[in-house]
Amino acid sequence: MNAKAGSIAWLSRLNFFLADVRDGLGPFLGVFLMGHGWAADDIGYVMTLGGIAGMLATTPAGALTDAVRAKRLVVGIGSVLVVAGSLLLLVSPSFTITAVSQVGTGIVGAIIGPAIAGLTLGIVGQQGLPSQLGNNEAWNHGGNVFSAALAGALGYFWGLPAVFVLMAVMAVASLLCLSRIRPEDIDHDVARGLDPQRSADQPQVSTWRVLAGSRPLMLLALAMMLFHLGNAAMLPLLSQSVVSRGHADPALYTALTVIVAQLVMIPTALLAGRFADRKGYWLLITVALLALPVRGLVAGVWDSPWALLPVQMLDGVGAGLLGVALPGSVARILQGSGHINIGLGAVTTIQSIGAALSPALAGVVAKHYGYGAAFAALTAIALLALVVWGVLAERREHGVAASAMVAGSVSK
């Protein structure tokens, strides 16, 4: 029996409970603020502030994860701070307090992600990483479905303050899971991507040289940026298109979009972890990128509320695959460098630029040329991401066999 089996099991459960914690109030924030008389534009401003803060914090958060050995403490403090920041809104939902809360939540949420990735790698190592990433993602998506359904029910019967209570309970449960992960089961050198066989007097390569000099990493980041540029606005655009024609109830339709995608992500993540164990990550990323233009084509051509089902099922496939393949591929590219988590943070920051620009681009096209043209534009961008990946990325860099990536990637 694996001596770390207990810690691995509690790591999976940690991902379940953190699903409701790391993003704060999420979709409930807008509803809560509207109930306190907020205008739609002010809600948008504070949500944007939180998103920008999270994007800017992602790369430094990766550097923090590489540097610290108290990764359990980082996750624990982060969970407490997110809940505390959200509870502030119950006391005073003023613009200043809400803005501070959302900026803090964005920063702390950016820290929790790399810390979980570092914990996972430190516990299971490169060999067990693909399978465990699949388990992490499956438990995370399961937690999202569970918490969304429970929050909806609690909010219906007892009002939105019940959602705050649920978040606090989930945070306490996540702290319990953290306490059951044994510190001695975490190899902090492996967690940052150092080679266990590395000589103590071997000089370390600088972070900048590792990141900027790695062609495989830069191509991965470019493909992910284009993917999210085409992806982020797809669901909001579909919802706007359907609701604007009076074809569906806005609240019910939005809830269904979340549930359908999350339910598909659970088995997809599990299968992705098993597949990556045998075949690597290249094909998983390819399929995820391929799902997006198909999704855009269906959304643009099928003028019906029922387009929700295939569109969100494809979204679940793409997100489920990338949730496993992206951190796994970065870990493989930067193996031996000691900079895996900052590398993942850098890729996440770059892809976030695409996600931030996507709604604005789609909105402009939809306003001047209609929803069909907007879907066509997003589909074209998705195809460009697929071309960048399929033509320029080298399959061997994302394959099964781990290799000495630092020298190879820096020299390219």
UniProtKB/TrEMBL annotation:
InterPro entries from the UniProt entry: MFS (IPR011701), MFS_dom (IPR020846), MFS_trans_sf (IPR036259)
Keyword line: Membrane, Transmembrane, Transmembrane helix
Major facilitator superfamily (MFS) profile domain boundaries: 1-397
Gene3D superfamilies: MFS general substrate transporter like domains (1.20.1250.20)
The keyword Transmembrane helix appears for this protein: yes
MF GO annotations: transmembrane transporter activity
SUPFAM superfamilies: MFS general substrate transporter
PROSITE patterns: MFS
Protein name, entry field: MFS transporter
Organism, scientific name: Herbaspirillum aquaticum
